Amino acid sequence: MPYSFISRDALKDRLGDTLTTDDVAYRAILEAVSRRIEHETSQRFQVHTATRYLSATWTNSLMLRTGMLSVTTLKTDDDGDRTYETTWATTDYDLIPLNAVGDLQPFTSIDVAPAGTKTFPVHTRSTELVGSWGYFQDLETVSSALNEALDSSETAVDVVSGSAYEVLQTILIDTEQMYITAISTNTLTVERAVNGTTAATHDNGAAIQRYRYPSPIVEATAISAVRIFRRKDTPFGVVGGSDLSFPRNIPEMDPDVKRLISPYRRTVMSYA
User: Fold this and answer.
1) What CA–CA distance (Å, rounded) separates 176 from 191?
2) Residues 221, 261: Cα–Cα separation, whole Å
């Protein structure tokens, strides 16, 4: 499930690199840093589709381990046999916080609706939840659309203008996510059906959208990636050490990165 919160081109601009020598390393660093930031915050910023199995602690509320954007199906296992025989209607539950969408935040729990007819069974793996997960979904329509029909297996995507895209961006065509790994003129090389989506056919002229992420997370990714790439110039994690300066150790995490991601940190409940 590859993704990066900034493009390879954006990182190269930061480093002033116009060559291709380190392109493979840039991808590895950016994907690793993006995952690390999610680990540090206990959030998922890349939107993905998944089925999750959760354990309820209370009959009237279900806490979510990661943020959720929308529910496709919610089912519960009433007798603990791992068969989810009870399907909930949308009128049976409320997604909490109620104003999450307007506040550009994810849903973090599901409450039984006051007029609902269901309750959560209190036992391990009591609930099957299918839906879209992530912090929030921010999509930008790209001016360059598909320039040729696409079948469900092609990895060469022809677009009107390749200059409208950058390597390591995640794009959305209809309901399928794709990850750009290379660009040659007006052809994007992509990994198909990423982040839990399904490969499908797409019509010529189909609109293409790209994912955007919270600006503090983007900046934290850039700072961290530049720092890791430059570690090759800091043997043993030590900076300086010449006759005119005192050596100092690099801190475990950049202080600016800590400040940038701090508002997004979430306490994870072990039962969810």
Assistant:
1) 11
2) 10
With 70 as the cut, is the pLDDT of residue 173 above it? yes
> Model pTM?
0.88
Contact by Cβ (8 Å): 41, 261: yes
The answer to whether the CB of 159 falls within 8 A of the CB of 146 is: yes
User: What pLDDT sits at residue 16?
Assistant: 95
First vs last C-alpha separation in the chain:
22
Indicate whether 224 pLDDT > 90: yes
- CA-to-CA dists, residue 18 to 9, 72, 93, 165, 222, angstroms: 9, 44, 53, 17, 17
d(CA 162, CA 254): 35
Q: Is 192 helix (H, G, I), strand (E, B) or coil?
A: coil
pLDDT tens, residue by residue, 19-41: 999 999 999 999 999 999 999 99
Is there a cis peptide before residue 97, judged by omega within 30 degrees of 0?
yes
3-state secondary structure of 212: strand
For residue 19, what are the CA distances in angstroms to 8, 64, 165, 225?
12, 44, 18, 17
Q: How far apart are CA 79 and CA 28, in angstroms?
A: 45
Q: Is the pLDDT of residue 240 over 60?
A: no
pLDDT category at 245 given cuts 50, 70, 90 is: low
